[in-house]
């Protein structure tokens, strides 16, 4: 195999999206994945394309919403993508008003409309009556995470990207102060540019070249229901609950936190009764009529969060040639096209569409480095 211009570690949606944008600029790209495509969080997420609205995240989210429709139109296989918008609901007991939430989201650059409770119920008739109203984001969308991840993999292969699965990257080779290659379970790879798109597994690989990427793993569980009649293609959220009904008419839902367990900072893939109870009761308080729906699957995967709760995206100042795209928490599916495009601009020394200075991996360098 010819040496790649760029090697990407991780065939989740972040690594694949980086490959998609970089290969289109004419560079030779190889992705190295120790398991299968989408085997990390990417193939098992909630499928919401709904940006996290917060300083440090919003500009990436707005860019992602602009890029998704074109990305989808360039994919060779079905993804379950539907742009029906997202409705964030506000309960009668919530302190915030829909207008205040809408105003904040607009100030962060998003198109949103505050809706009355009656309008929310017109949009999604079986919603609970105990609502103050909601905020509708028409640009939000949904897609099946595994189908989408596989479709991007097919797309990048068709433009010459090599994807080596079942291959563990065990080290990063550096000469002087520059990356010169990777050590893998299938032999060494020579390359001058390496992108870590390894999600929560970034810290140990980065530590081998004394780069600190202090993101920690966080277990997140998702429930899948049986098929039922079509209720709505609109993404729904309320408090920590997120829920969508896919094109397959199943509900996919989860809820942050829980009554007995708080966040679980581990690589564990178990799902507790509390996870199920908390997610199901949150969904039923929003759509009471789903109470006889059966669950057909529950699973958990690991996302990665940084100590300051901002993504870690950028070029390391040392060693040169090392790029990082991690710390995406529960938002990496939404952000994938934006992260891929930004990283493609960094590796080719172009100005980035969005100012990512605050997201730099260098922010974790200690004074003695
Ligand atoms: C239950 C759940 C629901 C979610 N819902 C949503 C949602 O609705 N919307 C949203 O935007 N986001 C959601 N997310 C988050 C989203 O799924 C993640 O942010 C995203 O998938 C991260 O993608 P990634 O490619 O960065 O990481 P991953 O998908 O974790 O991929 C990293 C890959 O790197 C590989 N790897 C690691 N180390 C090595 C090594 N040394 N050598 C070779 N390969 C290596 C791993 O095997 C893995 O395949 C959810 C996550 C979960 C778990």
3D structure, described in words:
This protein is globular. It folds into two domains: 6-74 and 145-214 and 308-367, FAD/NAD(P)-binding domain (3-Layer(bba) Sandwich); 86-139 and 217-305, 2-Layer Sandwich (D-Amino Acid Oxidase, Chain A, domain 2). The protein is an alpha/beta fold and 369 residues long. It is 25% helix and 27% strand. The model has no long low-confidence stretch (mean pLDDT 95). Bound molecules: flavin-adenine dinucleotide. Residues 9-15, 32-35, 39-42, 44-48, 168-169, 197-199, 201, 205, 220, 222, 254, 301, 303, 328, 330-334 line the site of flavin-adenine dinucleotide.
Short description:
The chain has helices at 13-23, 58-73, 98-107, 117-123, 145-158, 202-207, 273-286, 332-347, and strands at 6-9, 29-32, 48-49, 86-91, 113-116, 131-137, 141-142, 162-164, 169-175, 178-184, 187-190, 194-196, 216-227, 235-238, 241-245, 250-255, 295-305, 312-315, 322-326. It has 369 residues and is an alpha/beta fold.
């Amino acid at each position: 195999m010819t040496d790649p211009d760029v090697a990407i570690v991780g065939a989740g949606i972040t690594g694949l999206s980086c490959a998609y944008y970089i290969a289109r600029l004419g560079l030779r790209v190889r992705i190295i994945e120790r398991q299968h495509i989408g085997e990390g969080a990417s193939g098992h997420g909630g499928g919401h394309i709904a940006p996290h609205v917060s300083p440090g995240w919003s500009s990436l989210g707005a860019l992602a919403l602009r890029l998704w429709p074109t990305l989808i139109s360039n994919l060779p296989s079905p993804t379950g993508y539907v742009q029906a918008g997202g409705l964030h609901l506000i309960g009668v007991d919530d302190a915030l008003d829909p207008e205040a939430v809408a105003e904040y989201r607009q100030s962060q650059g998003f198109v949103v409309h505050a809706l009355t409770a009656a309008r929310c119920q017109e949009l999604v008739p079986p919603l609970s009556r105990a609502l103050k109203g909601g905020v509708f984001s028409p640009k939000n969308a949904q897609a099946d995470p595994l189908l989408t991840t596989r479709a991007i993999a097919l797309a990048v292969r068709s433009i010459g990207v090599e994807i080596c699965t079942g291959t563990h990257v065990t080290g990063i080779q550096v000469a002087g102060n520059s990356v010169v290659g990777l050590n893998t379970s299938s032999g060494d790879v020579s390359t001058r540019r390496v992108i870590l798109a390894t999600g929560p597994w970034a810290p140990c690989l980065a530590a081998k070249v004394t780069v600190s990427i202090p993101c920690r793993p966080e277990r997140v569980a998702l429930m899948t229901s049986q098929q039922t009649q079509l209720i709505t293609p609109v993404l729904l959220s309320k408090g920590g609950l997120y829920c969508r009904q896919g094109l397959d008419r199943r509900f996919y839902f989860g809820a942050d936190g829980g009554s007995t367990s708080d966040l679980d900072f581990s690589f564990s893939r178990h799902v507790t009764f509390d996870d199920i109870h908390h997610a199901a009761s949150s969904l039923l308080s929003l759509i009471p009529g789903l109470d006889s729906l059966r669950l057909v699957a529950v699973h958990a995967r690991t996302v990665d969060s940084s100590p300051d709760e901002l993504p870690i995206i950028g070029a390391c100042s040392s060693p040169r040639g090392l790029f990082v795209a991690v710390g995406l928490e529960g938002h990496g599916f939404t952000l994938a096209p934006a992260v891929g495009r930004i990283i493609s601009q960094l590796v080719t020394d172009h100005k980035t569409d969005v100012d990512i200075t605050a997201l730099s991996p260098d922010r974790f360098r200690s004074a003695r480095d």
